[in-house]
Amino acid sequence: MSYDFITTETRGHILLVTMNRPEVYNAVHVDMHHEMAACWDAFAADQNLWVAVLTGAGDKAFSAGNDLKATAKGGNKKPMPPSGFAGLSSRFDLEKPIIAAVNGFAMGGGFETALSCDIILASDKAKFALPEVKVGFFAAASGVQRLSRYVGRLAAQEMMLTGRTIDAAEALKMGCCNDVLPADALMDRAMELAEQMCTVSPSAVKATKRVLNDMYDRDGMQGSIQFSREVIADLMQTEDFKEGVTAFVEKRAPNWVNK
Questions:
Q1: At 120, which helix (H) or strand (E)?
Q2: Residue 242 in domain
Q3: What CATH number has the domain bearing residue 95?
Q4: Which residues are known catalytic residues?
Q5: 137: domain range?
Q6: 107-141 pLDDT tens trace
Q7: Could you say which of 91, 120, 129, 241 would form a disulfide bridge with 165 (CB–CB 3.0 to 4.6 Å)?
């Protein structure tokens, strides 16, 4: 398949997916969400593909997250795909592993996309944040649920309620990623790990992921993410939401009114 906003490459049993909007730091708008959802659907259906590696184009960003300029222009009126942000955040039936190779900053939905993968490798230049509260949003694309599960609730709350950014070293210490690599070694390591996964039983890997997916269902992850969608829909009706998006586009400090 050909895509407008991502590129794909097959290497044996490995699918390399690159978010390809470097001019906006690989920010994701609604058409890209649907394109990525279709890509993961195709990956799931192809018996010859066993592992995927996801990265971002360029040397600055994995993904800046939600494309707020597109949102400000009304580009969020088309519904999100059922599988969520980047076709991943609400996808609980994929039984093949995805490795996130975070080559630069992963902000907001970009971080949530990485958290929706199975393994996170980070460049030593990578930075992570859930800064949505700074622009009138919150981490509604599974960030609240996943980060609190991975690093513990206290540490996650501090990040989510302040929107602060952490570097790769702190991310590793907190448990936000599996390993940190020099920038020029990141993709080699990601492909090496993917190849290692291809040496084990793909049926056993799928069985493992089936149980992991079921754990999310049993502990209420799916229901909580659905609740996040309901809350963000309410939030989008507030003056603060509109002000946050407008201030971001106009490159000024927002004037919050708490309503």
A1: strand 119-123
A2: yes
A3: 3.90.226.10
A4: 112, 132
A5: 1-184+201-259
A6: 999 999 999 999 999 999 999 999 999 999 999 99
A7: 129
